[in-house]
Amino acid sequence: MEITLNGESRQVPDHSTASQLVETLCLAGKRMAMEINEEIVPRSTFDERVIRDGDKIEIVGAIGGG
Fold first, then answer.
1. Full-prediction pTM beyond 0.85?
2. What backbone torsions phi and psi does residue 45 show, to the nearest 5 degrees?
């Protein structure tokens, strides 16, 4: 199925979860936030949140500074 990830089209397997997307992008364990269709997705729900065809997903990473 096709989604929009950070403004770019991307193919992902049907019935993928937010957690599986994070793993595919090699972001597991990293500090990041995800928004699907303009709704913040709590990390605690990544395993249950199924991605649907046409979803618009934004992922941003936390950057520390000093």
1. yes
2. -110, 5
